Amino acid sequence: MDAPAGPLPPLIYTMENKPIVTCAGDQNLFTSVYPTLSQQLPREPMEWRRSYGRAPKMIHLESNFVQFKEELLPKEGNKALLTFPFLHIYWTECCDTEVYKATVKDDLTKWQNVLKAHSSVDWLIVVVENDAKKKNKTNILPRTSIVDKIRNDFCNKQSDRCVVLSDPLKDSSRTQESWNAFLTKLRTLLLMSFTKNLGKFEDDMRTLREKRTEPGWSFCEYFMVQEELAFVFEMLQQFEDALVQYDELDALFSQYVVNFGAGDGANWLTFFCQPVKSWNGLILRKPIDMEKRELIQRQEATLLDLRSYLFSRQCTLLLFLQRPWEVAQRALELLHSCVQELKLLEELVFSDQDYSPHGRAELGFVSVPPGALDCWVFLSCLEVLQRIEGCCDRAQIDSNIAHTVGLWSYATEKLKSLGYLCGLVSEKGPNSEDLNRTVDLLAGLGAERPETANTAQSPYKKLKEALSSVETFEKHYLDLSHATMEMCTSIGRARSAKLVGKDLAEFYMRKKSPQKAEMYLQGALKNYLAEGWALPITHTRKQLAECQKHLGQIENYLQTSSLLASDRHLTEEERKYFCQEILSFASQQTVSPGHKIVLPMQSFAQLRDLHFTPSTAVVHVGGVLSVEITICSQMPVPVRVEQIAISVHFSIEKNSYRKTAEWLTKHKASNGVIHFPTEPSPFPAAQNSLPALELYEMFERSPSDNSLHTTGIICKNVHMLLRRQESSASLDAPSGVALEDGAHVLKCSSVTLEPGANTITFRTQAKEPGTYTLRQLSASVGPVWFVLPHIYPLVQYDVYSQEPQLHVEPLADSLLAGIPQKVKFTVTTGHYTVKNGDSLQLSNAEAMFILCHAENRAMIYSNTREKASDASLRVQSSDKVTSISLPAAPAYHMIEFELEVLSLPSAPASGGESSVLGVTEPHRKHKDTQKAGHCMATTDHKVSIDCPWSIYSTVIALTFSVPFRTRHSLLSAGTRKYVQVCVQNLSELDFQLSDSKLVDTGDGTDLQLIPLNTKSQQRISSKQSVFFVWELQWTQEPPPSLHCRFSVGFSPAAEERLSISLKPYTYEFQVENFFTLYNVKAEILPPSGAEHCKTGSLCSLEVSITRLSGLLEVDKDEALMESDEYFSTKLMYEVVDNSSNWAVCGKSSGVISMPVAAQATHRVHMEVMPLFAGYLPLPDVRLFKYLPHHSAHSSQLDADSWIENDSLSVDKHVDDQLDSSSVKSRGSVHSAASSEHKGLPMPRLQALPPGQVFNASTGMQILVLPSKDDHVLEVSVT
Amino acid sequence: MAVCVAVIAKENYPLYIRSVPTENELKFHYMVHTSLDVVDEKISAMGKALVDQRELYLGLLYPTEDYKVYGYVTNSRVKFVMVVDSSNTALRDNEIRSMFRKLHSSYTDVMCNPFYNPGDCIQSRAFDSMVTSMMIQVC
Amino acid sequence: MADEALFLLLHNEMVSGVYKSAEQGEVENGRCITKLENMGFRVGQGLIERFTKDTARFKDELDIMKFICKDFWTTVFKKQIDNLRTNHQGIYVLQDNKFRLLTQMSAGKQYLEHASKYLAFTCGLIRGGLSNLGIKSIVTAEVSSMPACKLNSHFLQMFLVIFFFRSSVFLFVFVFVNLEEIENAKPILLLSILTFGVVICSILIFIFNYFLTHNGQ
């Protein structure tokens, strides 16, 4: 261990603490050797093996050589180690026997005896030789002889106790080695001595300690003993060991105090229980505080003295050991424990005496004057700090503030309490007894110590100065606190700094300078808020409130007090008080009327939920909306609020859909209650939790074959999370609350808010349509406005206005003409109020009537589809208009009623160009229904309705469809004629048909129609047909054409007798050329000889064409040629067998000239061959008019029609019976179509209308027998 | 023994703080809050320390005249702070340590309680009674 | 932790339960993963609290990750993570060659498309644990060429942990076939890790850009 660094003053070593070695014998010799010796001895360290298994140490030995005196030798039971001679050396350089015998031997013997007498065995004899002496001596014995003599004279068994040092003053190798040998020996012996003696000492010490329970044992004595040991270690520079000694003492003492406190009274402790008279702090500048040591020795030390001394020693040693920071730390502990111990003893004294075995009397008592300890602590803190600063450089100190800061703040604290004690912390200085106290305290400090006297900033001076006056105290206090705060902040102890700051603030408040205090309070409050410490927040707020009150920051004060009033951690009274503060301020009229003080509402009351009626939060213009809010008042007392207002933002909404009544009826579900989150948790950190991860399954397919090679979980909002992390720092809400006054405000005046939940209802009459968003909630108490700046989640209600509307729709999916049908009228009143006498004016279309019954009831529904009422409504109809008088209905309601309408079963006419039926529309429809097949003919009826609410009349179109389709056909038997009418029911329901009629509307007078229908009533069920037949009869020449109207009454079969008589269903048509001109008769005769035809054998076909009538109008055409006596016309016949039963051999057609006269007959004969066996129908014979080509303009037309008819003839006969109109039309169509072949000179054919030709042999069959050899026939045929 | 026991979340707001009814609660709140400074220091210092020194028990945070404040931090950065009357010298380091262990284990139970939502204040009765048992005077 | 088998079966049931409830429309289907993950989160919080009760305090994230790989994993899955990599910028790659929750599935690609369901809970477990240890993180998972699987966790202080599971079944197949195939298997594994590095880099770059832009604002 090398010597401690610079700052340690060397004065420790100047005091003679070195192991003592005595020297006897030749003093001159010793003095000559001494310099070398004292210089050489410490040079090399020596290992010191220790007893009790303590670790061996290398130590550099030094020693203090003194002349041997007998009184130096310790008597029995010596406690003083410092003055103990560890080794005795005898020096001699005698070299001749005479001299030895003469003097030296006796001298040695005496020396030895003295040592023996004191039973000290640590001795050494040094024989110094030098050659110089030998030179001039003549009678020389061998050098060794003397040594040997000495050896066997004195050290009989321990021969090593005698060493030779040869010419020490020379400089030769021999000298060197003899020196080394000597020194080593010396050291070893010294150490041996140490070990022996210290061991012995420690043993004694232990035994002494064991006695400590015995009465009369004195701690002070023991203290001295152990300290002796400590000194020795220190002397040997074994500071660790020295420290250990002191620590043991420390521990022992503390333990005693504790036990003492626990009632086990060790009476020696009473010595320390004297009243504390002086409290000058620690003294660390001197290595040993001698006067305190004396006190202890004299057993007059107080507890403080003992502690101080003990600590000063520990401090010194620690500084030797280069552990200044430990000093600081220990210092703090010491101070605390001292204070504790004194308290303990004190309360022991003043507590009743039950447990103390020996009376209170002999237990003196510790009385500590108030503030004394504070002084002591303060001084000590500063002393320690200064001591440390004394031995460290700036950098070290700065880097170790953490260790010292505790002392600083402790000192600050103490100074503060002193200040309060001495009345230095008040705007009017200390009063008399404060001053007395101060004086006493200062007295207790005693006089300043010399060693600090000349240092300017000594603790002593500081304290004295601080206590001297208010100003100086403030100065010192501020210095200290600021220093402390700086240190704290510099090492990141923000919270501690804040705490000191708060003390400072308190101080300022006491000094009535709140403006200084506020800063600190705000700082602290911020910190507590940030970390969510409820109680400190409350407490600090209270201080802040007071401060703001003094500063007259009205708004802040009110805000703070509102916060406090709502603070659960305060007592009811305090809350009431702060609440009252607000109210009283509000009540006082001093503030200027216009001036408003806006405070956040959060602390005053909280919006819990909000409820609309109607729950859909949608009202029509003029409707009443009520908003019911529940706010939870935080105030401890009922507060009367002048007005609570919700400012509303108005905006015209784009999509008007929300505002319609249908929307309402659909959105019944939402019950219209909006809940608001209660205040956020007070934990700031807990709030900024991360947004939820967006995790998704991930499937990764290999590009080559699209096979799944990786699945997993990925997070899609990494960047979000990162941003969140970034921005979470700036989370604090903006405090500025502005009261916005929108045009629209829901108000509620003079409400009293009870503590807890209150419900407040706002009513408003909806004005303009649009969307209203609730923005701010504000409550005003006098000039004080509590404002909830944003109502979140978003709350809005809608106001809509609706135009009145009229809907008319049939009840059934399609209206049927001819029978009464129900039509539903819906009047949506919208903003229009239907008064009595308002009516709908329907201008009826002809052919549609509105059937008005006596009882017509109208339902009135409210907007939300609840049935409001129902009223009867009168319908009176003149020929042109029907007026429906509506029942009175309020706005935004619906009137619904049904009416029966009847449209005429307007007959779709047949016989196209027949001009009888004027209605072209149904006709056209009829046409395309013919093509479209099985769907009903429809009629549209437009009705224009005049509504009371608008000048314009709304036109509605009702489409009726005719339930029937009718076809007619002409049948003939020879010259007799029949008309068949087929009625088909296309509708879904069944009908009852009654009294069917067919009348001739033409001029034909003598024509009569004989019905062949059996029953008059007939049921026609849906999708079925009914046929009616009439026979035509006439007397003289029949008319060329015949106009008929078919009419049949009908009524729904299901229904009972209808009130009104229904119009019959009519159908008009026209038949032309129905009179038979020619009779065609064909017959097949088997070959002569056979009475049956055979397949493959030719038969003869006889066709006879007979003219039945004379010349008629219909014959007047260009085919008619006039010879001299009679007329004749050209006909062409043609035998076709499209069923290919027959093969016509030879020419199958031919032109004949037919005389136009009754009974003129023309026969044709031709060969046909049956191809099959069985009853075969005859091949059919057709007859055409043959028009020669030389005739006039319309040549190509007929040519076409010839070709046409030739080709068409087939299908004409195959498909349904030809009705003339279609033939005509078809003819015309073709004439239009084929205008390309112009002027081909060709004969033309014209088909005879089917009515004119009667084929007598249709339906006749002839039996054909199969022939024998079919196969031949097969061949021949093919 | 203990005059105040506090559990403090990793964000430094109190999850649970309870002190003997006789004394002024506020004082302890301040004390515990201030002690967080030292806790933070020790934790940050702990980073450098060797594994064996990195125990959860932080030891004496700082003494004051009347109280000793001890600290403990779980791996989940939840801090336990215990204030002990400094006149009560019977309490040695080991007792404190074991008390903290007890505190920790019962805090763990709280954490694993389905009705406890991490980050909320601790309402659990079990925990409460455990703390009470720590605070009853023995010496 | 209860008996391992119990845990595994319970876990399976939980997964299927959540997905069933999704089919019944109680949870919208996409959120199943999230739901499972959240369950895991809470469990993780509790577990870590228990497991770290008697351990020494952690020095740094790496220390924590080691704990997760060793003690935590062992307690939950009765085995350690087989491999831990990190780039010391908060990206950790953990690899489990025998992830218990997958070993029950058959080898090959048979159930690959379902594998991810069985990772969600574990992701949550880890995220919860880390968050309770004061590390905000994102944990994602990946099963490649069934039933090997990676799990990426992404600390918000730009940390990314990537777990790389590899189920036994797969390996066993190799073992039984012959040994050199395992030699073949290794490069595949390394390759996948390499590709992985690329992924990480890209992510990091993205994040850096992100920060740049963010600071820009």
UniProtKB/TrEMBL annotation, chain A:
One of its GO terms (cellular component) is TRAPPII protein complex. Keywords: Golgi apparatus, Transport. Its main location: Golgi. It is found in: Golgi apparatus. The keyword ATP-binding does not apply. It comes from the Eukaryota. Residues 1220-1231 have a biased composition (Low complexity). InterPro entries: Ig_TRAPPC10, TPC11, TRAPPC10/Trs130, TRAPPC10/Trs130_C, TRAPPC10/Trs130_N. Residues 810-903 form the TRAPPC10 Ig-like domain. Residues 1216-1242 are annotated as: Disordered. GO terms for biological process: early endosome to Golgi transport; intra-Golgi vesicle-mediated transport. Residues 1059-1265 form the TRAPPC10/Trs130 C-terminal domain. This is Trafficking protein particle complex subunit 10. The gene is TRAPPC10.
From TrEMBL, chain B:
The keyword Cytoplasm applies. GO terms for biological process: endoplasmic reticulum to Golgi vesicle-mediated transport. GO terms for cellular component: cytosol; endoplasmic reticulum; Golgi apparatus; perinuclear region of cytoplasm; TRAPP complex. It comes from the Eukaryota. SUPFAM superfamilies: SNARE-like (SSF64356). Coiled coil: none annotated. It is found in: Cytoplasm, Perinuclear region; Endoplasmic reticulum; Golgi apparatus. The keyword Endoplasmic reticulum applies. Pfam families: Sedlin_N. Keywords: Cytoplasm, Endoplasmic reticulum, ER-Golgi transport, Golgi apparatus, Transport. Belongs to the TRAPP small subunits family. Sedlin subfamily. This is Trafficking protein particle complex subunit 2-like protein. It comes from Equus asinus.
Automatic annotation (TrEMBL), chain C:
SUPFAM superfamilies: Ligand-binding domain in the NO signalling and Golgi transport (SSF111126). GO terms for biological process: endoplasmic reticulum to Golgi vesicle-mediated transport; nervous system development. It holds the Pfam family TRAPP. GO terms for cellular component: cis-Golgi network; endoplasmic reticulum; trans-Golgi network; TRAPP complex. Keywords: Endoplasmic reticulum, Golgi apparatus, Membrane, Neurogenesis, Transmembrane, Transmembrane helix. InterPro entries: NO_sig/Golgi_transp_ligand-bd, TRAPP_component, TRAPPC6/Trs33. Gene3D superfamilies: Trafficking protein particle complex subunit 3. The chain crosses the membrane at residues 155-177, 189-212. It comes from the Eukaryota. It is found in: Endoplasmic reticulum; Golgi apparatus, cis-Golgi network. Component of a transport protein particle (TRAPP) complex that may function in specific stages of inter-organelle traffic. Specifically involved in the early development of neural circuitry, likely by controlling the frequency and amplitude of intracellular calcium transients implicated in the regulation of neuron differentiation and survival. Homodimer. Part of a TRAPP complex. Heterodimer with TRAPPC3. The heterodimer TRAPPC6B-TRAPPC3 interacts with TRAPPC1 likely providing a core for TRAPP complex formation. Belongs to the TRAPP small subunits family. BET3 subfamily. This is Trafficking protein particle complex subunit 6B. It comes from Equus asinus (Donkey).
